[in-house]
C-alpha cells in the first residue's frame, strides 16, 4: 500500500515511555496510523521517514510497501530499511 505521512505526534504510552504516532492518508483516500518509539525494535526503520517529514516544508513524504494490520492500522514492521 502507498500512503503519505500527514502528521507525526509525540506522546507517552501507558507506562510513560515516549512513543511516536504516525498518521497517513492512503492513495485510496482513507486515513491510517501506526506507532513506534525509541524503545521499539522497528524505530530504526521509521526514524528516517519521521526526520524527513519534520524537516520537509512541503511535507510530501510518500511511503510504499506498507501492509495493513487492521482496518486503519499499518503494520509498523512493514516498512523496509
Description of the structure:
The chain has a four-stranded antiparallel β-sheet with strand order 3-2-1-4. The two termini are 16 Å apart. The protein has one helix at 43-55; strands at 3-12, 18-26, 31-36, 62-63. The chain has 81 residues and is α+β, with helices and mostly antiparallel strands. The chain has one domain (3-63). It is globular.
Q: What is the secondary structure topology, with strand pairs?
A:
Elements lengths: L2 E10 L5 E9 L4 E6 L6 H13 L6 E2 L18
Antiparallel strand pairs: 1-2, 1-4, 2-3
Characteristics of this structure?
81 residues, alpha+beta, 4-stranded antiparallel beta sheet, 1 helix
Would you tell me the overall average pLDDT?
A: 93
Name the helix and strand elements from N-terminus to C-terminus, one letter apiece: EEEHE
* Tally of individual domains: 1
Residues in helix, % = 10-25%
